[in-house]
Amino acid sequence: RREAARAARFEPGATRDGVRVEVAANINRAADALAALEAGAEGVGLMRTEFLFLERDSVPTEDEQEQEYRAMAQAMEGRPLIIRTLDIGGDKEVPYLGLAREDNSFLGLRGIRLCFERPDLFLPQLRAVARVARDHANVHLMFPMISTLEDFRRARALFETVRLELGAPEVPLGVMIEVPSAALIAGALAAEVDFFSVGTNDLTQYTLAMDRLHPQLARQTDAMHPAVLQLIALTVQAADRHGKWVGVCGGAAGDEVGALMLAGLGVRELSVSTPQIAGVKAALRGRTLPELQALAREALTQPTAEAVRALVRPAGRGEA
Ligand code: PEP
Ligand code: MG
């Protein structure tokens, strides 16, 4: 049995009727890549590059960043690697950057907004990624906290300038869908991006207006809230119209109920923490796509997150 479980975790992620749902890992350091692959990761769906900045007391240089991204790409051996540009601000403070304090840091200069203010941080990072992309296929670049179409165009223009200067090939460019406005203009974004990855942690925080770290609100801050699911459904529909794919790299992807709902909504890549990979693959294998689609349709009509969760019972006990 143990050997069967081991073999199962190296099977590609798929529903029982064989529809592919890639299961990737959220890891930040190349040092964690081996463990993720051993756990059955099919790639890296989210590399949070801010961790490189958070773990030290000075800005990592372009060369140092290149080294880390290159090591990760090497470890992936051609599997997809999605590098997310710096998402500093909000709760992620980097003391040595000397950033101004903000009253509403989650609504302030966070993620891509800070990067636009600080080309001294952003451009070396973009250059480091482009340099790695010269030597490794399947490197993807993703921008966090996109809330307008202009955000994406501006980020893309900066990267394209750097990429052409360095003679790097085209790199698939994606945006995180983690602000409600981005989900609501997903049609316009989908026409221009290569992929979406939904950040359910922030999408839930910003949709419900509940601080994701607030101890008293934690229980209610649930990505299975039908309002959040509606936004994800809109995102997938828009992406489908433009032939683009949608992944999820927020916490909901690693939760069994979340993984099933998201696959039912049309998400085709789930990026989760390493210990969650096997469980997510097993959950997907327990259901057919039509079952999951029926579940997701039902979920969208529920009034509460609790009612959505009640739709899913352990596999084999018969429900929608
Ligand atoms: C998210 O918001 O869901 C996400 C994956 O990004 P982070 O948790 O790094 O904000
Ligand atoms: Mg986020």
From TrEMBL:
Q: Where does the protein end up?
A: Cytoplasm
**Which family is annotated?**
Belongs to the PEP-utilizing enzyme family.
The identity of this protein, by name, is phosphoenolpyruvate--protein phosphotransferase
Q: Which residues of the complete protein appear here?
A: 510 to 829 of 831
